[in-house]
Design a protein that fits this description.
Blueprint (H helix, E strand, L loop, with lengths): L3 H8 L2 E4 L3 E7 L13 E5 L7 H22 L4 E7 L8 H16 L16
Parallel strand pairs: 3-4
Antiparallel strand pairs: 1-2, 2-4
Helix pairs in contact: 2-3
Length: 125
């Protein structure tokens, strides 16, 4: 996934939080199989709050490797998967993150995501 609209659409799907990342999963509808759009897709995003460019790029590389290893086994078909980096995700053990991703994908497949976040724009300070 590369377009902002695809990431925003995934944000309306199921959200599962873990210590090193947040997983967003959204089923796609209306895909045509002959265009190759029926496959699992993934995206990775890490905000500037996490660290400088070196830290963010390292985290994105780790997430891509993690997704390439786990999604063929446990990913949801015809769905977009997005990993959002959280503070401390760079230092976490790769095997621990792999186990957390398997658990998060199982929760998303069962429809047991975290409760939806409230509207942040309407809050008063």
């Amino acid at each position: 996934m590369r377009k902002r609209a695809e990431f925003l659409a995934a944000n309306r799907g199921t959200r599962v939080s873990r210590p090193g990342f947040v997983l967003l999963v959204r089923k796609r509808t209306g895909d045509s199989e002959e265009n190759g759009e029926g496959q699992m897709r993934f995206g990775v995003t890490v905000t500037k709050k996490i660290g400088n460019a070196v830290v963010r790029n390292r985290m994105k590389r780790r997430f891509r490797a993690l997704l390439r290893e786990v999604l063929p086994q446990a990913g949801l078909a015809h769905a977009d998967h997005v990993l959002i980096g959280r503070e401390g995700g760079v230092e976490r053990d790769f095997h621990a993150m792999k186990a957390e991703l398997f658990e998060a994908l199982a929760r998303a497949a069962a429809g047991k995501g975290d409760p939806p976040r409230g509207n942040r724009r309407g809050r008063r300070r």
